[in-house]
Amino acid sequence: MTRHYNFCAGPAALPAPVLERAREELLDYQGRGLSVMEMSHRSPEFVAIAEQAEADLRELLAIPDNYRVLFLQGGASLQFSMVPMNLLGQGGSANFLYTGIWGKKALAEAERLGFPVHLAGTSEPSGHAEVPRPGQIALSADAAYLHYTANETIGGLEFDYIPEVEAPLVCDMSSSILSGPLDVSRFGLIYAGAQKNIGPAGLTLVIVRDDLLDRARAPIPSLFDYRGLAEAGSMVNTPPTFSWYLAGLVFQWLKHDIGGLAAMDAINARKAAKLYAAIDASDLYSNPIAARSRSRMNVPFVLADARLDTLFLDEADAAGLLNLKGHRSVGGMRASLYNAVPEAGVDALIDFMADFERRHG
Ligand code: PMP
User: Fold this and answer.
1) What pLDDT, in 10s, does the model give residues 261-292?
2) Where does L-glutamate bind (predicted)?
3) Atom of ligand 1 nearest to the CA of 149
4) How many angstroms does the Cα of residue 356 sit away from the middle of ligand 1?
5) Superfamily of segment(s) 260-360
6) 173, 188, 203: which is closest to 71 by C-alpha?
């Protein structure tokens, strides 16, 4: 069996030790004679899995006690509507920073539901090549919160700072959560789809400060209500149990195999730095993002001659470097370097790119 290097933007690579552990436990979870997929979510075994996952996540991110952690469904996209439904019940408008496709979708969804929105800042003038500076962010007087996308997965644009504003900060961290340490206390609410740095698809993480649980616009469906979900331990209905369990294994891997988020941060910094350095040193490859706004997780790049794209992708695939095709809306290439992509994978990609350039550049 060979596991190739997978640069997919999501669902993305999972750590091999996590998959091995899941395989070991697949048919018979810890001597119980059944798999996690076949357990009641209310069984003592699953409740223990769920509680351990939350405890490990809290430890990894040093989540303060006045924050709730929710394990939900619906993807990050459902949070585009759940956030305004839950936070705008007492009036005010949703403020947004627009730095790419995902932030725009979040804004469009709030608008679609009839909520007042305000554009508080954008990277549009730079062609989404540089995040707005703090002085370029201006909230409306009635801002109930400011929403932004920490890392734009398609554009490859990442905030290098946490905005400091009067209103609670709401952040879509789908493609950057757990890539390094984070000061959760700076945020009102953080959400992330699982299928990049957390685990398999089907699970969505929400970390929300207690005082934001009582601002919902009534009535909203009970499955969308943070307060009710928090009180029910994210089990208003059947949660995605197997994804939750696998996320728990990923948290264990981060703690014990990697050594925590500071260690993960150092690895991620090295991985991204060497790939950008290789791109910048080449005549064939280029990345348009300003140095300070470059994403550590998603590295888009184009070839000087787009006629080579298909050959590049075919040869990469044959060399065991998978899923380097850029998002369908922008084309080109994209290498996603999430936590589970090992440094050796980035080294192999850089070697391949140099070799391809020598032969075709
Ligand atoms: N936000 C960001 C930053 C994303 O990268 C994605 C998915 N790629 C989403 C939201 C949407 O996530 P989901 O498919 O889980 O709804």
Assistant:
1) 999 999 999 999 999 999 999 999 999 999 99
2) 42
3) 3
4) 32
5) Aspartate Aminotransferase, domain 1 (3.90.1150.10)
6) 203
Q: Is the pLDDT of residue 52 over 90?
A: yes
Give the single-character DSSP code of 133. Answer: P
The ipTM assigned to this model is 0.99
Level-2 CATH architecture, domain 17-258: 3-Layer(aba) Sandwich (3.40)
pLDDT digits (tens, 9 = 90+) for 107-124: 999 999 999 999 999 999
C-alpha neighbours within 13 Å on the C-beta side of residue 52: 16
- Is residue 346 within 8 Å of residue 337, measured between CB atoms? yes
Residue whose structure tokens are 């619906």: 74
Which atom of ligand 1 is nearest the CA belonging to 195? 15
The DSSP code for 115 is -
**Whole-number pLDDT of residue 211:** 97
Burial 158-189 (b: 16+ CB within 10 A, else e): bbeeebebebbbbbbbbbbbbbbebeeeebbb
**Whole-angstrom Cα Rg for the chain:** 21
Q: How far is the CA of 55 from the centre of ligand 1 (A)?
A: 25
